[in-house]
Design goal:
The complex is a heterodimer of chains A (79) and B (879). Chain A is of the alpha/beta class and 79 residues long. Chain A has three helices and six strands. In chain A, the strands form two sheets. In chain A, strands 1-2-4-6 form a four-stranded mixed β-sheet, with no helix packed on it. Chain A has a two-stranded parallel ribbon with strand order 3-5. The longest helix of chain A has 9 residues. Chain A is globular and about 30 Å long. In chain B, the strands form five sheets. In chain B, strands 14-18-19-17-16-15 form a six-stranded mixed β-sheet. In chain B, helix 2 runs antiparallel to helix 3, helix 4 runs antiparallel to helix 5 and helix 10 packs antiparallel against helix 11. The two termini of chain B are 50 Å apart. Classes of the chains: A alpha/beta (79), B alpha+beta (879). Chains A and B meet through helix 1, helix 2 and helix 3 of A and helix 7 and strand 2 of B.
């Protein structure tokens, strides 16, 4: 399972395919201020990228791939 | 074969056909926009689909053709016969490659060479080619075009990204492109982020929602709402190739790397920056790099890093680092930006600044605009605070604090008036709990902010923007293509239809079994009631089977137009080769016939048309001499006649000299001199169908080998049809082919001969008569009889089949005679008796029966017996 939720922190690991999108959407609906840790993500499908962006949460660890990381530029935790 | 490829092959053939037909139509009338759009769309689609497979030469060739057509479409190039020749030739080559793909799933080895040569020719015609990336000399002013206008969103990319892209860019030019995937793209298996990650020369990208996201709960996780903006250091071709499946969703602009230098931030002009500008210009004039670097670094430490001036300085620094003094103009722009807070338009563009950079005024209005924006944002937050439900005790405190904030904000924008308005609105809220007046008030502040917001964005970026209008080549054709795709057509493998057809055929045979069963119930079991019930049931099944048969048949029916499609091309090519002027008129292409029938017809038709072109229509000189118009006309017409489809090829050429035909026939020994004088013109004309007959003394590339008309006749006869020729010397020739509409189910009549049952195809039967022996005349050894004043030769079937005759000789009374038509002759066939008619599926003779002369096949009878179907033509030939 590439998705791991601990309280309000969501870890996305490895290859996050579109199949996870609906489960992630469900999970995020129940989390107040989600925080994403994407450090371990090798690839994140657009649908998942979009959910992270739309959730209004913050990203505390960016994926190592620069292009992928660039997608989350606006979600990086300011502190 | 790969299922996708299997689907591509017939589609490609259709598209080639479409393009070819259209091209010929265009040669006649090159102004028809509909036709050129059709051709263009076909070629465009072919190019697109071919991209799915490993057939690069094919894609390249079609691409070259597409480019050429695109220029023809916009009127850049006039379509000449030479161009049409070349395009058709290229399409032919593609057609052959498709054949090769079908056979071996790979292109021929010489494909690459063939492609290169043709592409060179096609490209040679192109009026202009878009400038190739890299050709543009660094720093040279580029003619601005809409396609190359820098997109507006450049300024929205973070400065750090733009800076690093600027530093990383290998040349002067970069691609700034955006990608707005379709909402349903996930369902097609697309992953836009993955596509971008693996894109060539990626420098940076930005993802953001096309519109604000809906509330998270209602968001559809499987709809793509994102838009991407990308900077790439790659050629336009590379990006377009990489994104070829989503070509409609991208907008690629070529920009100068220096266009990335857009200082952003809040203008904070002051005396320091003006001094700097003065100094920097001096350094610039003196080309003093060290001094300029120092000044830039010094000012950077003095001003707020988030200000526009600081941003401009950082760009100055980057530019110096990368290009040194290579582009002075751009450095001057940046220095001006430091001085005034406004970036002058980019030198490479001709776009004019509408506003003169009169700094102070501008700055003031910018400041006000920014200020109003922040005021509005804070005010909106206050409303949100008030709206958040909480305990009553807390509500009071909140209201007071927000009132204080709102009043303070109001004073900053409109002095006391706005503050009073806040008091009024808050009082109303306290009294009635109605927050509406407060909301309206805040919105009015927001409206003020919105009207100036555009300026607020434009000012720091400068007025270098041009409207981002991109004309996409294909966009105008897309809606049409879509409506075409909606056409509800099912592409089914013919073998599947054939399988259904066979089952229907067997059902028809099985159905015949019921009537056999009925008679058996009555005769053997003596139950008339049971027999009647079976018969009733039989009629029901009969009705359904007939419906089923008609249904399947209609699926197999194709318009003859499909066979005719190739003729415009054939006629054009042959006419050009022979130096003749020929107009082709096709009529009745909607007439339908069974697919197999049409397929069996296609080769004979080509021979017929070739003959008309080669032997029929004369050269323009000959025609003028004969008092005919220079242009000859060849008609191909089709129509339905009863259960037959009739196709006629008619020309207004020189006709056939029947005297010469007879002489030739006599010379070849196929006709005696006496008979030559007796035969009618019609009979003489049909002599040309004899094998090896040719009027031409020399063999041409097209015809004259003496096989043409024989091929026509044997193919047509094999398909159960007939062919006739009429001609008038000097006026023209017409060849008519008559074929059954369908070949699957044959109606036969069964006859008895010597105690055995045989079947004879119904279409051959003219009538059945009973003759008294006295009516049969003997002419030498041949028997004949007279039927309505015509002498008809008699043939005893038993003799023809070598069955014993003795029994019959002794019989008295009537003879049962079946009059059949063979070609244009009628023959009386003496049989022992007539039996029922039925519909059967004639199966070809197989196994040990294969090659047995005199029979065309077998059919299964209702009682399980096997019926032999007589091939009268062949049986008589054996006589």
């Amino acid at each position: 399972m590439p998705m791991n939720v601990v309280e309000n922190v969501i870890h996305l690991n490895g290859l996050c395919a579109i199949e996870e999108a609906e489960a992630l959407h469900q999970a995020l609906c129940g989390i107040e201020r989600p925080v994403f840790d994407l450090t371990e993500a090798a690839h994140i499908h657009t649908a998942i990228v979009q959910l992270v962006m739309a959730s209004g949460g913050t990203v505390r660890g960016l994926p190592s791939d620069l292009a992928l990381a660039a997608c989350f530029r606006d979600c990086i935790a300011s502190s | 074969m790969n299922a996708l490829l299997a689907q591509f092959i017939p589609e490609a053939r259709d598209l080639l056909e479409q393009a070819g037909t259209g091209m010929l139509a265009l040669e006649q009338d090159s102004t028809s926009q509909t036709v050129i759009n059709d051709v263009f769309r076909a070629v465009h689609t072919l190019k697109g689909s071919s991209g799915l497979f490993d057939v690069a030469p094919l894609t390249h060739l079609v691409h070259a053709a597409e480019d050429l057509l695109a220029d023809v479409r916009i009127g850049e190039i006039a379509l000449t016969s030479d161009i049409v020749d070349r395009l058709l030739d290229s399409l032919d080559l593609v057609g052959r490659w498709i054949d090769a793909l079908e056979a071996r799933e790979t292109l021929p080895t010489d494909a690459e060479a063939d492609m290169t040569e043709r592409v060179a020719v096609l490209r040679g015609w192109l009026a202009h080619r878009p400038a190739i990336v890299g050709d543009v000399a660094a720093g040279a002013a580029v003619t601005p075009s809409l396609e190359s206008a820098a997109p507006e969103w450049l300024a929205e990319l973070p400065e750090s990204d733009r800076l690093s892209a600027f530093m990383a860019a290998s040349g002067a030019r970069l691609l700034a492109w955006s990608f707005s995937p379709e909402e349903n793209c996930f369902f097609r298996g697309d992953d836009p982020v993955a596509m971008l990650r693996h894109g060539p020369g990626l420098l940076t990208l930005r993802a953001h929602p096309r519109e604000a996201f809906p509330s998270f709960e209602t968001l559809d996780p499987l709809a793509c709402l994102l838009r991407f903006e990308v900077l790439s250091d790659a050629s336009r071709e590379a990006i377009e190739e990489h994104m070829r499946y989503v070509a409609d969703a991208i907008d690629v602009r070529e920009i100068d790397a220096r266009e990335l230098a857009i200082p952003t931030g809040k203008p904070a002009a002051g005396p320091v920056s003006r001094d700097f500008a003065c100094l920097a210009r001096q350094h610039l004039a003196a080309r003093d790099r060290v001094a300029l670097d120092r000044s830039v670094a010094a000012l950077l430490t003095m001003i707020a890093p988030e200000s526009l001036q600081a941003s401009a300085l950082r760009w100055c620094k980057a530019q110096l680092e990368r290009d040194g003094f290579e582009s002075l103009a751009n450095l001057e722009r940046l220095i001006a930006a430091v001085e005034t807070g406004i970036l002058p338009p980019y030198a490479g563009k001709t776009a004019e600044s509408k506003r003169e950079p009169t700094a102070p005024m501008q700055e003031d209005s910018d400041e006000t605009a920014n200020h109003r924006k922040y005021v509005y944002r804070i005010a909106v937050e206050q409303i949100k605070v008030l709206e958040t439900p909480t305990r009553p005790a807390v509500v009071q405190g909140r209201l007071e604090s927000t009132t204080v904030i709102l009043k303070k904000l109001a004073r900053t924008i409109d002095g006391g008036n706005a503050a009073n308005a806040v008091d009024e609105a808050v009082a109303m809220f306290r009294a009635s709990g109605d927050m509406q007046p407060l909301r309206v008030l805040i919105e009015s502040w927001g409206a003020g902010a919105a009207t100036v917001r555009k300026d607020d964005l434009a000012a720091p970026i400068g007025a270098a923007k041009t409207a981002p209008l991109v004309i996409q080549e294909a966009s105008s054709t897309e809606p049409l293509a879509e409506s075409r795709a909606v056409q509800r057509v099912l592409r089914v493998d013919q073998s599947k239809i054939d399988a259904i057809m066979n089952l229907v055929a067997e059902l028809i045979v099985a159905k015949n079994g019921l009537s056999y069963l009925a008679s058996r119930a009555e005769k053997v079991h003596g139950s008339r009631a049971a027999s009647r019930e079976i018969k009733e049931q039989f009629t029901v099944i009969d009705r359904i089977t007939q419906g089923l048969q008609v249904g399947v048949m209609s699926v197999r029916m194709m318009p003859v137009g499909q066979v005719f499609q190739r003729f415009p091309r054939l006629v054009r090519d042959i006419a050009r080769k022979l130096g003749k002027k020929i107009e082709l008129v096709i009529e009745g292409e909607d007439t339908e016939a069974d697919k197999n029938v049409l397929e069996s017809l296609s080769d004979p038709l080509i021979h017929m048309v070739r003959n008309s072109l080669d032997h029929g229509v004369e050269t323009p000189d000959e025609r003028r001499a004969a008092g005919k118009p220079e242009q000859g006309v060849v008609h191909i017409t089709a129509h339905q006649e009863n259960d037959n489809v009739v196709i006629e090829v008619r020309d207004d050429g020189k006709g056939i000299d029947l005297g010469a035909v007879k002489a030739k026939a006599v010379q070849r020994g196929s006709l005696t001199t006496e008979k030559a004088e007796q035969i009618s013109d019609e009979e003489a004309a049909n002599l040309v169908f004899a094998p090896g007959f040719s009027m031409k003394s020399e063999v041409s590339e097209l015809s004259g080998r003496g096989v043409g008309m024989d091929v026509v006749r044997s193919a047509v006869i094999k398909a159960g049809g007939e062919v006739t020729l009429r001609t008038k010397f000097g006026v023209g020739t017409s060849v008519t082919v008559r074929l059954p509409l369908t070949m699957a189910v044959t109606r036969i009549v069964t006859i008895e001969c010597h105690g055995r049952i045989f079947g004879i195809p119904m279409d051959l039967v003219v009538e059945t008569v009973r003759l008294h022996r006295a009516q049969i005349h003997r002419i030498k050894s041949a028997e004949t009889f007279v039927l309505r004043e015509a002498i008809i030769p008699l043939l005893r079937l038993a003799d023809a089949m070598g069955l014993s005759q003795t029994e019959h000789e002794s019989r008295d009374g009537d003879e049962a005679v079946m009059v059949v038509r063979l070609g244009r002759d009628r023959i009386g066939l003496v049989v022992d008796g007539f039996r029922e008619r039925m519909e059967v599926i004639v199966k070809p003779l197989e196994g040990v029966l294969e090659g047995m002369p005199g029979f065309s096949g077998t059919a299964l009878l209702g009682d399980g017996g096997v019926l032999l179907i007589i091939d009268l033509q062949e049986m008589l030939r054996c006589q």
